[in-house]
Design goal:
The complex is a heterodimer of chains A (230) and B (299).
Chain A lengths: L1 E5 L2 H7 L5 E7 L2 H4 L5 H18 L4 E7 L17 E4 L3 H10 L4 E4 L1 E11 L2 E6 L15 H4 L26 H11 L4 H4 L27 H6 L4
Chain B lengths: L4 H7 L4 E6 L7 H11 L5 E4 L11 H10 L4 E6 L5 H13 L4 E5 L20 H12 L16 E6 L6 H14 L3 E6 L3 H13 L7 E6 L5 H10 L7 H9 L3 H18 L3 E6 L8 H7 L5
Parallel strand pairs in B: 1-2, 1-8, 2-3, 3-4, 4-5, 5-6, 6-7, 7-8
The chains are: A alpha/beta (230), B alpha/beta (299).
């Protein structure tokens, strides 16, 4: 899922200078699961903003609303009729979909969207996928060196791997140490000998913003014509 | 056919000596020239680091050229941290055009260790892939497959750290570098001779010493505090307690550090598969001629 964390409140307050109507928009998908922007956090944000407005005489009219998934327009009709500023507690994707659908609203981010990851323990979320667009984890014991090695090295650990830890942060396990252990467990250490050549980064972010078309789901010319689309 | 003095020395089976020069932080050309003159003759070639520890310094290309002008043969270090495959190939073609032949392919210290931790890193290639790309360049084509009318002349090197983990797979990684095109290898500084001997035994077992020239790292330490710093602050270093104790007990730690380094150099060249020593005297480069002389390794 997409991992995000709440922005520090002073930053949000600064973004709201001069606002009148403020809608805090929560999302029940990823940011709810990582405890950054679900219903609970949206309500907390509403309370914090209302209190600040009251104490400082800002005159903000703050409300909160949580949608099922902010990244899909089908779920965004509850926003209709709102004016002013939206503090998005959804990820950067949700925030942009909302902004695209309601151009007259001013959408400001209430969270910092960080990565594609998974919960590792109570309240701990770690990155797992870099979305490079060309998955190779069958070669690396199901561990992605692009997302999980600080240098994204594809051919083994750098000289800074010590005691299973990454030199960049002692809290981070060395991805390559994990890959080696994983391949040992799978009886596939032969894969450690194989060179992974320079990659084609075009399917990654380096190729520009990506667009995936699922031919089965995307309407063909006939359907588009029938639906009155270009 | 050898393209550099370093390659010639290694290919004829002689012990090669290399030493590291840290380029200045600004345009102090005269200081670099003075250092080059002081070190001239003490090694076959000199490594010019590429923004080591991710601190901004004079580029390894420029400082390599300045050393060339002073009659020193450079080993230009080139990290994957700061350049993609376009810049990498362009810089190497340019370097070769300027007379640089020895290139050391390395991942590079992560930028969070240096003066610009806010920087975005590149890592389009890793060091193994860098070797592949530069070998193809030398063979007459760029990575896109376009033919080069005049390919760069290169003697390609790689780094190896026998002291990082996981230990057994350090040799696997070295084997990949050899496979990718490494012709010489410079190792992390050796203070833990036992572990280095175990590493070399694995290297010899795989026959890698016959496919690549291994130049073992040596470092003079000024005090036991320097040894502690190496142990605790430098990632991927192994510093045995005996080394720390020996420096701590010494009446003149600096002299003891020199003696220790000289002994290590002599030990290193006696190990099967070791073809040379690489001296890293950080901010103490002027001690290099003495170390080489006392170790009996003057080129």
């Amino acid at each position: 899922m997409i991992i995000a964390e709440r922005k520090p409140l002073p930053e949000v307050l600064e973004m709201l200078e001069g606002a009148k109507d403020v809608l805090v928009l929560g999302c029940r998908a990823c940011t709810a699961i990582c405890l950054a922007g679900g219903e609970r956090e949206a309500v907390e944000m509403r309370e914090a903003l209302s209190l600040h407005s009251e104490l400082k005489g800002k005159g903000w009219n703050v409300s909160a609303l949580t949608v099922e998934r902010a990244c899909e327009r089908e779920f965004l009709s509850p926003i209709e009729g709102h004016t002013g500023t939206v503090v998005s507690m959804a990820c950067g994707v949700g925030a942009q979909v909302v902004q695209g659908l309601f151009p007259s609203l001013r959408v400001v981010p209430g969270v910092n969207t960080s990565n594609m990851g998974a919960p590792e323990g109570m309240g701990v979320f770690v990155e797992r996928c870099a979305g490079c667009g060309d998955c190779i984890i069958h070669l690396t014991a199901g561990i992605c060196p692009i997302a999980r090695c600080a240098k994204g090295l594809l051919n083994g650990p750098c000289g800074g791997s010590k005691g299973g830890r990454c030199e960049v942060s002692p809290e981070t396990p060395c991805a390559w140490e994990q890959i080696v252990k994983g391949l040992e467990a799978q009886g596939r250490t032969d894969l450690l000998e194989a060179i992974i050549p320079p990659r084609d980064w075009r399917p990654s972010r380096s190729g520009g913003p990506r667009r995936i078309v699922n031919a089965e789901a995307a309407p063909g010319p006939a359907q588009r014509e029938w639906r009155g689309e270009d | 056919m050898s393209v550099s003095r370093l390659q010639g020395t290694l290919d004829r089976g002689a012990i090669a000596v290399t030493a590291e020069i840290g380029p200045p932080r600004s345009c102090e050309v005269e200081r670099l020239r003075a250092m080059a003159r002081a070190l001239k003759g003490s090694a076959h070639a000199f490594n010019l680091t590429d923004n080591q520890a991710a601190n901004v310094r004079m580029s390894s290309i420029a400082s390599s050229v300045i050393c060339l002008q002073e009659g020193l043969e450079p080993v230009m270090q080139m990290t994957c941290r700061d350049r993609n495959r376009i810049a990498m190939q362009s810089d190497v073609i340019g370097a070769s055009a300027l007379g640089i032949r020895n290139v050391l392919c390395i991942s590079g210290d992560h930028q969070t260790f240096g003066s610009h931790p806010q920087a975005k890193n590149v890592y389009d290639l890793d060091s193994v892939q860098e070797l592949m790309v530069l070998r193809r360049l030398r063979e007459g084509a760029n990575w896109a497959g376009e033919t080069l009318a005049e390919p760069p002349q290169l003697f390609l090197g790689a780094a190896a750290n026998p002291f990082a983990d996981p230990f057994e797979h350090r040799v696997t990684r070295l084997a990949k570098k050899v496979e990718a095109g490494a012709q010489f290898v410079q190792t992390q500084c050796v203070l833990d001779l036992d572990r280095f001997r175990r590493f070399m035994a694995l290297v010899v077992e795989r026959g890698l010493h016959e496919r690549v020239h291994i130049i073992a790292g040596a470092i003079p330490l000024r005090s036991h505090k320097a040894a502690l710093f190496m142990r605790d602050k430098v990632a991927g270093m192994s510093v045995p307690d005996e080394v720390i104790d020996r420096l701590r007990r010494a009446a003149d730690p600096k002299e003891e550090g020199i003696r220790l380094c000289v002994e290590t150099m002599q030990e290193l060249v006696s190990i099967e598969g070791v073809h040379g020593v690489h001296i890293t005297a950080i901010a103490w480069e002027d001690v290099v001629p003495r170390l080489v002389r006392e170790a009996g390794l003057t080129p």
